[in-house]
Amino acid sequence: MAEEVKLLGVWGSPYSRRVETALKLKNVEYEFVEEDLQSKSALLLKSNPVHQKIPVLLHNGKPLAESQVILEYIDETWKEGFPILPKDPYERAQARFWARFIDEKCLPATYKVLWGCEELEKAVEEACELLKILENELKDKKFFAGETVGLVDIVANFIGYWLRAIQEVVGVELLTKEKLPKLYNWSDEFCSVFQESLPPKDKLVAYIRDRLQSTNTTTTSS
Ligand SMILES: N[C@@H](CCC(=O)N[C@@H](CS)C(=O)NCC(=O)O)C(=O)O
């Protein structure tokens, strides 16, 4: 019986792009279903009743939620394909540690800077400090996983692609060659490897401009 792999996602979401990247690395064919987050589908609500968020992966009808959980599931299910997590248990635990560090620390600090906050200077400093810690983990490697990409590289996709596009639009400087040279170079490598599974830059920039404009309009009219 042919496998059915369906992804509920949003084109501009780094979280659903993580899942697409992993499926592509494993050469798994899938159907992408674009969700409207303003009017979530019954399938999304039924498949992820706890968080009601994308991405949701449906494998032969069975739903999975939370991008990092999905990435591990993909790695374990399509074992023969490109390895996403290291084989060695210690290295695997380390990869999970850094992936969690990105979601729990780096992204909230970065979002705070990009989507506006009162003490911007302090927020930029805090986000840079966290990104510096992440940068140190790169050591002299090309990717977080070594010569090829792995879990941490996929999870860091927002930092590798979205961050540079958004900071330009918003007019703040977080990830620059001067401040974080290794992370900046990594983001170049990241973009060249993952080009196919990243949203088009023009479309992304237009979307961010719209989003900023509507946030500003809501703030000034309230
Ligand atoms: N921790 C989740 C985060 C997913 C997430 O934040 N998804 C957003 C879109 S980028 C969402 O579905 N938001 C809808 C909502 O919050 O109602 C993951 O890693 O999958």
What does this protein structure show overall?
The protein has helices at residues 14-25, 42-47, 67-77, 89-114, 120-138, 151-155, 157-170, 181-194, 201-221, and strands at 5-9, 31-34, 56-59, 62-65. The chain has two domains: 5-77, Glutaredoxin (3-Layer(aba) Sandwich); 89-197, Glutathione S-transferase Yfyf (Class Pi), Chain A, domain 2 (Up-down Bundle), CATH 1.20.1050. Helix 1 links the parallel strand 1 and strand 2. It is built from nine helices and four strands. It has 222 residues and is of the alpha+beta class. Helix 1 runs parallel beside helix 3 and helix 7 crosses helix 8. Strands 2-1-3-4 form a four-stranded mixed beta sheet, covered by helices on one side.
Kindly provide the name of the CATH class of the largest domain.
Answer: Mainly Alpha
Sketch the major β-sheet. 4 strands, mixed
Number of strands: 4
- The side-by-side strand order for the widest beta sheet comes to 2-1-3-4
Average predicted confidence as pLDDT: 94
Q: Just name the CATH architecture of the largest domain.
A: Up-down Bundle
What shape does the CA trace take? Answer: globular
Beta fraction: 5-15%
Per DSSP, the total helix count is 9
List low-pLDDT spans. none
Order of helix and strand elements from N to C terminus:
EHEHEEHHHHHHH
**What would the CATH topology of the largest domain be?**
Glutathione S-transferase Yfyf (Class Pi), Chain A, domain 2
**What ligands can be seen in this structure?**
glutathione
